[in-house]
Amino acid sequence: MLFWHVGATILLARYTFRDERMDLRTLAFGAVVADLIDTPIGFATFAEGGSILLVAHSLLFAVVVMTVVVLITRRGRPRRRWMAIPVAMLMHLMLDGMWSHPETLLWPFFGFDFAQSGFETAGSYLEAILTDPWRWVGEGLGLAYLVYLWRAAGLSDRGTRADFARTGIIHVPIGVSDSPS
User: Fold this and answer.
1) 21-76, pLDDT tens digit by residue?
2) Angle between helices 2-17 and 24-44 (to 10 degrees)
3) Pairing with 173, which of 82, 111, 179, 181 sits 20 to 30 Å away (CA)?
4) Hey, is 111 helix, strand or coil?
5) How far apart are CA 69 and CA 172, in angstroms?
6) Who's near 47: CB < 8 A, 6+ residues apart?
7) Which DSSP string do the residues of 45-105 spell out, in sequence order?
8) How does pLDDT run across 78-125, given as a tens digit for each residue?
C-alpha cells in the first residue's frame, strides 16, 4: 500500500505538525520503510512464520530508530529532518491498524512470535490483499492527496521539481485551502 501510506502520512504530518518546511522525502521514506524491510523477509519466510508483519512493524523498532536519530543529530534542522522517519514509521503502524496485532506491535513483550496472518500460503495472502476493495480505496485516497499536492505545489514545472528534489519542501500553505476538495 504505497500511495495510502505515503499520502495519508504526509497529510497527517502536515496537519499535525503544521510545518511547511518539513522534508517530505524523509517523511515518505519513513512511511514505507517498515514494508520495505518486512515484506521481502516475510514472503521469503512465510512458510515458517505465517506473517509479513515482522520486527519493523513493532513499536520497539520505531523507538530504536527515533533514539538513533536523537543520539546522532544535533538540535535544529538536521534533527527535524531525520526525525520525520520515525514519526512516519509510527504513523505507518497506526495506518496499518497494528493495535489489532498486539503480538507484533508490542514485540517482543508478548514473546518472540509475530501475529499470524491467518493464511496458508504467501500466495493466498497476496491474493487477499490484491482483491480487498478497501485497500484499493485507501490507495486511491492516498494517490488523490498526492496528486493534489503535486498540482498545488506546481511540481509539473521542471525547476520546481528540481527544488523539491534538492530540499524535500513544497510551497503549499497549510490551512483550510490545503484540504483536497
Assistant:
1) 899 999 999 999 999 999 999 989 888 888 889 999 999 999 999 999 999 998 88
2) 140
3) 82
4) strand
5) 27
6) 121, 122
7) THHHH--S--GGGSHHHHHHHHHHHHHHS-TTHHHHHHHHHHHHHHHHHHHTTGGG-HHHH
8) 888 999 999 999 999 999 999 999 999 999 998 999 988 888 888 888
Query: C-alpha grid cell for residue 55?
Result: 520486527
Percent of the chain that is helix, strand, coil (3-state, to 5): 70, 0, 30
Q: Can you read off the three cell numbers belonging to residue 169?
A: 519542501
What are 33-48's pLDDT values in tens digits?
A: 999 999 999 989 888 8
Q: Which single residue is written with the C-alpha cell 512516519? A: 88
- % of the chain beyond a pLDDT of 90: 69
* Secondary structure class of 137 (helix, strand, coil): helix
